[in-house]
Amino acid sequence: MSVSIYNKTDNKLSSLANQTELMDSDSTADVTSQIENLTTSVKRNTDEISILSGSCVRMGELNRNAHTAGGTWNCNDPDNINGLLGQINRGDISELGLGTELKLKGTIENVPCIVDGEKSTKTVEYDTYFVCVAVDFLRTTKASSGKRSYTFMPFGSPIGTNVIDNATGLGDVHAYSQTFIQQKVMPVYTAHFKNIFGNNLAEFSDPLPLMINKSATSYTYVNGGGRSVENYGYSDSYTSYSLRLPSEPEIFGHYVTSGCYDNSGMESQLPYFANKPITTALTGLGYDTTSGMWLSSYSGMNYYGYYDIDKRTIHARPANAEFGIYPLLTLVQK
């Protein structure tokens, strides 16, 4: 191909042997550098989009999560449990959606607890129902990637009461993932509900933060309290889990008492509460509102987030106080 270049001084066109003569070596290097920078930017943006798509709800998902379906499944009847799990495994959403209720009654023995500052065990009895608060919202293990999931939370009454942790001195405080409630109590609860729902009880492999940065004074992504990257440890130290307490953002849509200290790692509001605030969702005839509700968000000074269901107010309470346990439970398609 014949290529010419215009010389303004001589007002003439000069022929070039090929197009590469259009650029000197410096120009070529500059273009190469720009291409490399562009490639790096594309990769970074792709990674960020991947992260956001996993932790946030896209508009289509919001529309699906806004859909309510079904009534109450009496899971005290084994036949009803089989029917429920059958619908989940078939991907049938006709009777499952936000607001679907699972009525459950049971007894959990040998639940770890703290009595007079000492570790002990107790028996927890519950008679409540779990309400679906999210659909396809929380990321389960890679083995269940792409499968439909339903996240439930107890309404009406808690699954017993307990402490977050028996920490008394400021040096004893733990990130939520390392607390007594998550390390000791939730595995016992998990075994109980796995006996009911089998392998449909989801596991999560994404880590919860391992530490609290008590020196954090303001929230930034560089030093984001318990959310900073260095606080997540290494992948070989991640521990999978099935049940955990909800965080302030998951319930209220934002931080209230925790702010820069929050270490739950959970920052997206559960869709049910985006449509129906907890101030109205957890109050009703027959509800046990006396024990309040623990949250997984650390507020500083050994205090964790606490929701007073009776007064409809949120506070921070000492981690070694005993309040209601409302764990999130997710059922996944198999």
Write a structural description.
The structure is a single chain. With 334 residues, the protein is an alpha+beta fold. The protein has 7 helices and 12 strands. A 5-stranded mixed sheet has the order 3-4-5-6-12. A 3-stranded antiparallel sheet has the order 8-9-10, with no helix packed on it. It has a two-stranded antiparallel ribbon with strand order 1-2. The longest helix is centred in the first third of the chain and has 31 residues, at 25-55. It starts with a strand and ends with a strand. The relative contact order is 0.14. Residues 18-23, 47-67 and 217-232 have low confidence and may be disordered.
Strand order of the largest sheet: 3-4-5-6-12
Q: Largest sheet, described in full?
A: 5 strands, mixed
> How helical, in percent, are the residues?
10-25%
Mean pLDDT: 75
SS class:
alpha+beta
Radius of gyration: 26 Å
The count of helical stretches stands at 7
> What string gives the helices and strands in order?
EEHHEHEEEEHHHHEEEEE
How would you describe this structure in keywords?
about 325 residues; alpha+beta; five-stranded mixed sheet; three-stranded antiparallel sheet; 12 strands
